[in-house]
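Hey, can you fold this one?
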Amino acid sequence: MTKEKALILGNLTIDHNLTERGKTISPGGSAFFCARTLRNLNFPTAVVSPFGKDFDKSVLENISLYPQSPTSLETLIFRNVLLSDKKREQFVQNLPSAGFDSIYGIPDSLFSEKKIVMVAPILNNLTYRQISKWKEISGNAYFVLLAQGFFRKVLSSGRVAKRKWIGEGKMVQMFDLIVVSEEDYEDIDEIAARWGRDGRISIVTRAEKGSTIYSEGKVKDTAAFKVYKSVDSTGAGDVFAAAYAFMYVRTRDEVYSAVFANAAAAMSLRFSAKELQYRYEDVIKFMKGR
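Sure. Predicted structure:
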């Protein structure tokens, strides 16, 4: 495989989903969906994640994985239950296996010559100290945060609930792009608008309603693409984030990148996680056929 152009740091999971398609078990986690998206767009990618002996590494074909050996017996399990109002209830299992402290000595060389570095926690399990070090050794890479994990807490029952992210200012200042969902927190647009300053782009994804870009005090909305049959909506926001970062480093065009990302996210709805397969040319054709 050619030298990786992107690096993604976040938890790989095994998802137990109850979705539009019924009950499925599949690979998941923001790191997985971002990596598969960039691979589909022919953008060589590496993933750093703890994972267990039960994780099927074959789903990361042509994607570099660090470490190469499992860090625990069992991978973090995420249970996603799609409710009738299209919202989700989520539960986790094997939480002790999810910590990045199980990965010893991530080599600095992994960060060299990367065009994109994506930090994609699905839980509040990354520290400022860890991320600031990654930022320091990432050089001029486009530094991207999928912030959803910082708005989550795990209750004693294993259910994932919302939490207020306190003191986030110091953290977000490190990033060039931050992507969140309108479902992440009650006043997420107010938060995103605050983040989208000082040369930083902040985006709120809205599923079938498209996305909103906050940048330099300006607000720009982009419409979603229609999908008449959805197989599985899990990971669509992660697909958007990876596709946006990919196109933005190529064009530096905020709106075009969002339109491209909306198209990639819409296309992903047609596939299950294991089947997530399309090319750059397919996304462009889908955009033009709107």
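The chain has one domain: 6-288. Let me know if you want another pass with a different chain boundary.
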